[in-house]
Amino acid sequence: MNWSAIAAIYRFEMARFFRTLAQSFLSPVLSTSLYFVVFGTAIGSRIQEVEGVSYGAFIVPGLIMLSVVMLAISNASFGIYFPKFLGTIYELLSAPVNFIEIVIGYVGAAATKSLFVGLVILVTATFFVDIRIEHPFAMAAFLILSCLSFSLLGFIVGIWASNFEQISLVPQLVVTPLIFLGGTFYSISMLPPVWQTITLFNPVVYLISGFRWSFYGLADVPIGFSLLAILVFTGTCLAVIGWIFKTGWRIRS
Amino acid sequence: MTTILSIRDLRKSYADGFEALKGVSLDIEQGEILALLGPNGAGKTTLISTVCGITTPTSGTVTVGGHDIQTEFRAARRMIGLVPQEIALEPFEKVWNTVRFSRGLFGYGSDNARIEEILRKLSLWDKRKNAIKELSGGMKRRVLIAKALAHEPRVLFLDEPTAGVDVELRKDMWEIVAELKKAGVTIILTTHYIEEAEAIADRVGVIDKGELRLVQDKNTLMAQMGKKQIEVMLADPIQAIPDSLAVHNLTLNGNGDALVYTYDTQADRTGITTLLNDVAQAGLVLRDVQTRQSSLEEIFVNLVSGEPA
Ligand SMILES: Nc1ncnc2c1ncn2[C@@H]1O[C@H](COP(=O)(O)OP(=O)(O)OP(=O)(O)O)[C@@H](O)[C@H]1O
Ligand SMILES: [Mg+2]
């Protein structure tokens, strides 16, 4: 294992993050506050409680997931897309590193950044609503696994993309709808029965349900399913990345 | 001499089916400077990229210091440094950090003294805290060299290191190359400037259409293929070449004050003695005599254009 290469990649990626630390910090604080003003106050005043939890508090896990997932994808995809775009990838390809080391470096950094933002949102939320975390370890596990798995997805997107438009395509066209329809702002039980069934095909439902369970003990689907879903998703991403590096798809001509 | 880089029947076809390398075999000795010449699209960059691991070979083998570039890629790549043809750098990164990054990628910890030495050698020390985007084009090229040297490679590839570089920097570059050679580094460079190959290379290789046309010691090459010319300068200009000198195939220069005689250095008889006798016989008074050897450039043009496509 070339640990110093992993460290070099990780450090380089984090340096980009620290150069714009204020931005990285302020934008999640601002957007979370906005969500609370709009959803928590305006809409929440009509919904009031969901299964015994105030609406404002109810949406916190979903809000965190929303930001974490989007950021993980964009951080990881840009992280690996930039070297392709700038041509600096020649150095990665000619260095004594294997694909596992490259993935650990890039995905590790992207996951760290999104984890940081997730925590910032969590802390910001405590200023607006009362939050309780019933299962802190499960909460941490879900959060970290989500950061990692969606960073893996972002990495795939970054390798696949051949222009900047394509990078935002996947998060906006696929992931955003799945998240918004995945119970971020409502409980599945509020939907008509047909939609409840359809929703179960949305993988994000399992993610948010499990994450919310770790906060309030409320789940739309059994917690075991949630765990299984995220593990399967992570495994799929890893398999795709393994294939990419084996074939050199879109990296090595 | 020991062979440090060995390329055997290397072929590369790109995804679109284009065969950019058609079976190249080449041995490079430790410590030598090899200049690769060839027209645009000849396959120079493809050859370098394949050895360095940026493209995968279609067939053939390459070993660096005895390590196969595919089965022992770590050991092989650790020995290689690459300065790419195109300038590719992260614009917001600081010079120091980017060199440290390269060192890290190759498995070495940050060694401040070593990085300082490299930056000083390349006259980048004053710019170490600057972001790449604040550097001039020539400085960026030197940053690429610094990055390539960060892990102390034994073999250095320079893909057109002096393309678009001014005379001053080109001389700097030649000095850097000479110093590296002194330190025992093997250097393979590509160039379109034949005088560059002539000035710094020990051996010259010519690639055309994916094939290695020739690899030869530079001096042997010039001696073998070079034509020499004698310029006979006359004390008094003449209007036409006297008939008595017609057998020598001379040309008269524009001013009419010099006769140019071309001969083959490889020929048994160069005909110089008879020429000079005949010139004296014709009653011409010599002011000076000069010889001139044809450059690699002429050899190169002959080689590439002379071959049927
Ligand atoms: N990624 C690629 N896909 C398809 N063809 C390619 C690719 N890269 C290079 N080629 C082709 O391979 C041939 C050799 O290209 P290469 O870059 O090796 O030439 P070169 O000798 O370095 O030329 P130059 O002096 O212009 O740098 C060219 O015909 C080029 O179009
Ligand atoms: Mg080239």
UniProtKB/TrEMBL annotation, chain A:
InterPro entries: ABC-2_transport_permease, ABC2_TM, ABC2_TM_bact-type, ABC_2_transport. The chain crosses the membrane at residues 21-43, 55-82, 140-161, 167-188, 200-219, 225-245. It is found in: Cell inner membrane; Membrane. GO terms for cellular component: ATP-binding cassette (ABC) transporter complex. Keywords: Cell membrane, Membrane, Transmembrane, Transmembrane helix, Transport. The keyword Repressor does not apply. Its main location: membrane. It is a multi-pass membrane protein. Residues 19-248 form the ABC transmembrane type-2 domain. The keyword Transmembrane applies. Coiled coil: none annotated. GO terms for molecular function: ABC-type transporter activity. Belongs to the ABC-2 integral membrane protein family. PANTHER family: INNER MEMBRANE TRANSPORT PERMEASE YADH-RELATED (PTHR43332), TRANSPORT PERMEASE PROTEIN (PTHR43332:SF1). This is Transport permease protein. It comes from Ruegeria atlantica. The lineage of its organism: Bacteria, Pseudomonadati, Pseudomonadota, Alphaproteobacteria, Rhodobacterales. The gene is yadH_2.
